[in-house]
């Protein structure tokens, strides 16, 4: 038999680039059906030892000065990155169309250029004049900011050789094509080759590189999954199109934490950092309003206050409506069931509408108590005490469970001038059996009231019992 190995066929997924030795109907990586096809025969080969780029040295002798992070000039981005832009780092920024990715990166490029660090901005989706118009509007014109419109990888590498930037922005990686690789721009093979070439240049020349990536319908990053593995940082830029508020999250970060969140305000004059975004999600009512309660949520390490509003009306339909906006509908349904079972607050024949203020999205269970208070307040048409915040997870047995980062939440509420805070007690209880009272303590001038279960909390606020009695005896 011949010593040469027979050529083996390789099958590749057209959606994510996953490869397998045999054909399968469903991709093992992205679970797409009918996307696996033969990629051609690849002859078997063995690797031989070759010259090394740099010799191996003890880890204690490796210098870290070249990898010190440098501020990008945008504080909220530095917060998410863990200090700033690291030389040689490859950053992938993804987000839905129109969310403001290009505006954010143009601001980062301008701020970096103002620190006398040369920046190269490559646009493949717009012309250079279009980017210049946006730069005039956002005051991002600087002599150290270089701009080029290119879609060819070879020409892009030539621009890098000539400009020698310290920061490179590619908008976007799906528009750049390599002439030596088969496929259309944005395809699996093209994206893999373009990303590999750009990351190789970034590492060898210590250039901070930011790649803009497209997203699919379900919000995941388009292109091969290997793109997320080879970069150092993966950022998601998100926000509601009906709101100016934008949030930047780190999904992967080799240089810092992944639980930080950056807040931005996108306007006609550009994008600005929002260091205190709480005011965007809390209404300033001149007087007490029924059906409202303020929850304290955690976005990464940052506590944010969000107002929950509820409306409860008599239902004319056989099946009452349950409509939510900004909160999880399944958790609202659970809260309604617990209120009926453990606090005698019945909404089985009423339409319930629950929403948040300012387009805030509340997903964590710590907002359950605030949702329950807003629903009960709307049902009784009686407001909760002025300046009250609530935080706590509600269990199916009616108990209130402890939430994480409670000291940080209380400190943020006290800083904003709230007078009362309802929190779970250290001893979790079951169904309400004791008197409607809780242990009280002071935190930075704010009265913190610990309650064991949902029945006790509703009784203290005067929201327990039959609706038609009109009896209210709140203890706050």
UniProtKB/TrEMBL annotation:
Keywords from the named record: ATP-binding, DNA damage, DNA repair, DNA-binding, Hydrolase, Metal-binding, Nucleotide-binding, Stress response, Zinc, Zinc-finger
InterPro entries in alphabetical order: AAA+_ATPase, DNA_repair_RadA, P-loop_NTPase, RecA_ATP-bd, Ribosomal_Su5_D2-typ_SF, Ribsml_uS5_D2-typ_fold_subgr, Rubredoxin_2
Pfam families, per database record: AAA_25 (PF13481), ChlI (PF13541), Zn_ribbon_LapB (PF18073)
Record flagged with keyword Cell membrane: no
GO biological process, one term: recombinational repair
A molecular function GO annotation: ATP-dependent DNA damage sensor activity
Region annotation Lon-protease-like: where it falls in the sequence: 351-476
A single GO cellular-component term on record: cytosol
Keyword match Protease: no
Signal peptide: none
Occurrences of domain RecA family profile (ranges): 66-215
Family (UniProt): Belongs to the RecA family. RadA subfamily.
Biological role: Plays a role in repairing double-strand DNA breaks, probably involving stabilizing or processing branched DNA or blocked replication forks. DNA-dependent ATPase involved in processing of recombination intermediates, plays a role in repairing DNA breaks. Stimulates the branch migration of RecA-mediated strand transfer reactions, allowing the 3' invading strand to extend heteroduplex DNA faster. Binds ssDNA in the presence of ADP but not other nucleotides, has ATPase activity that is stimulated by ssDNA and various branched DNA structures, but inhibited by SSB. Does not have RecA's homology-searching function.
PANTHER family reported for this sequence: DNA REPAIR PROTEIN RADA (PTHR32472), DNA REPAIR PROTEIN RADA-LIKE PROTEIN (PTHR32472:SF10)
The record's note on its domains: The middle region has homology to RecA with ATPase motifs including the RadA KNRFG motif, while the C-terminus is homologous to Lon protease.
Protein name in the entry: DNA repair protein RadA
Organism annotation: Nocardioides daedukensis
Gene (UniProt): radA
């Amino acid at each position: 038999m011949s010593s040469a190995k027979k050529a083996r066929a390789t099958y590749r997924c057209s959606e994510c680039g996953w490869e397998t030795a045999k054909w399968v109907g469903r991709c093992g990586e992205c679970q797409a059906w009918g996307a696996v096809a033969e990629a051609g025969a690849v002859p078997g080969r063995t690797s031989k030892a070759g010259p090394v780029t740099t010799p191996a040295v003890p880890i204690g002798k490796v210098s870290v000065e070249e990898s010190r992070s440098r501020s990008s000039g945008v504080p909220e981005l530095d917060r998410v990155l863990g200090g700033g832009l690291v030389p040689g780092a490859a950053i992938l920024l993804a987000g839905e169309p129109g969310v403001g990715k290009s505006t954010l990166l143009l601001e980062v490029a301008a701020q970096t250029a103002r620190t006398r660090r040369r920046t190269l901005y490559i646009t493949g989706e717009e012309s250079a004049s279009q980017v210049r118009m946006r730069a005039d509007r956002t005051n991002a014109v600087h002599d150290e900011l270089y701009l080029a419109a290119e879609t060819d990888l070879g020409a892009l590498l030539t621009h890098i050789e000539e400009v020698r930037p310290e920061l490179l922005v590619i908008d976007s990686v799906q528009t750049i094509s390599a002439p030596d690789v088969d496929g259309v721009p944005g395809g699996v093979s093209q994206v893999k080759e373009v990303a590999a070439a750009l990351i190789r240049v970034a590492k060898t020349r210590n250039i901070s590189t930011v790649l803009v990536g497209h997203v699919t319908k379900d919000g995941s990053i388009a292109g091969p999954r290997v793109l997320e593995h080879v970069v150092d940082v993966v950022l998601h830029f998100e926000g509601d199109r009906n709101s100016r508020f934008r949030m930047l999250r780190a999904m992967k970060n080799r240089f810092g934490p992944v639980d930080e969140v950056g807040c931005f305000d996108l306007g006609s004059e550009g994008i600005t950092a929002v260091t205190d975004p709480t005011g965007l999600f809390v209404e300033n009512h001149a007087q007490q309003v029924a059906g409202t309660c303020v929850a304290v949520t955690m976005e990464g390490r940052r506590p944010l206050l969000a107002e929950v509003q509820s409306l409860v009306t008599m239902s004319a339909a056989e099946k009452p409506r349950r409509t939510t906006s900004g909160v999880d509908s399944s958790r609202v349904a659970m809260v309604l069931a617990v209120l009926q079972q453990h606090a005698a607050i019945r909404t089985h024949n009423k339409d319930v509408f629950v929403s948040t203020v300012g387009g805030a999205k509340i997903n964590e269970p710590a907002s359950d108590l605030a949702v329950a208070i807003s629903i009960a307040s709307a049902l009784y048409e009686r407001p909760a005490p002025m300046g009250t915040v609530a935080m706590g997870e509600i269990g199916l047995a009616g108990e209130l469970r402890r939430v994480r980062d409670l000291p940080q939440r209380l400190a943020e509420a006290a800083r904003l001038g709230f007078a009362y805070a309802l929190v779970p007690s250290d001893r979790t209880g079951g169904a309400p059996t004791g008197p409607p009272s809780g242990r009280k303590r002071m935190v930075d001038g704010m009265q913190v009231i610990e309650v064991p279960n949902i029945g006790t909390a509703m009784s203290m606020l005067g929201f327990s019992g039959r609706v038609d009695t009109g009896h209210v005896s709140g203890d706050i």
